[in-house]
Amino acid sequence: MKRPTRDGVRFGFVADVHHGPNEYGKHGEVALDLLDDALAGLAVAGCDALVDLGDRITDTTPHEDLQRTEEVAALWRRARTPRHHVVGNHDASVPRDAAEHALGAPLTSHVTVYGDVRLVVWNASVRYPGLRIADEDLNWLDRTLDASDAPTVIVSHVPLGGGSLVGNAYFEVATDGRGRYVDEAVARERIVRHPGVLACVAGHVHWNALHVIDGVAFLTLHGLTERFTTPPHASGAWATLDVAADRLRWEVRGGDPIRVDLPRRRPGHRWVRRTRGDPWPT
Questions:
Q1: For residues 85 and 54, is the Cβ–Cβ distance under 8 A?
Q2: pTM exceeds 0.85
Q3: Domain architecture of the chain: domains with CATH
């Protein structure tokens, strides 16, 4: 299929498929149909790479978890576009080698370059509850960011940008260690001080959100089968991120759409920060 004419690099995203039983807001029984529709939309969008942000299944038993992972993977394997997969907390019940075999793709942290943009796939620990960033994951991120000042997009399962979770059906009350890493600020400071990072994209919290820090766009994508913001139907969300010469354009399709158009962060751009009593810089 011929890619639509445009400038820059386009990434496509799906998050939180949750193939499995209906559970709370997740309409897992329609997950495969919704994923099929999302992948068809992404094929028409003409992406340079696709990213699965994790939680492919809702875990129940080891046998069912592997079977459902294989069913989700069968749809992903039909995609003709390069793809990358992140491990979500509900995926962790499936042995990594078995999941990699099903997907035909690695589930380790890695970097791939598309055009002039580095896609950093950060498969950090998702041990749940009590989410914490493992030392080896943080060290890997440090080494990877230090290796190049090229324009960079980071993808992970758990969001890294902070921001309010008020109104979130899952994490308004159970926030730290569940909705986000208890030590996310450590990773976030390393990210925003790196001159090349443009955006971080994640799933996990089952809603669309944007938080901009030092010019870095922290984006979260709605869950494909989630319906707490779109009752009684699942959101059917999928998204594209265009990294153009001077803009970032993020568009979520489905029942809870959103469109964001931001200036691309200038290399090394940092905001002014003050503490109480500090004079304003002149």
A1: yes
A2: yes
A3: 9-263 (3.60.21.10)
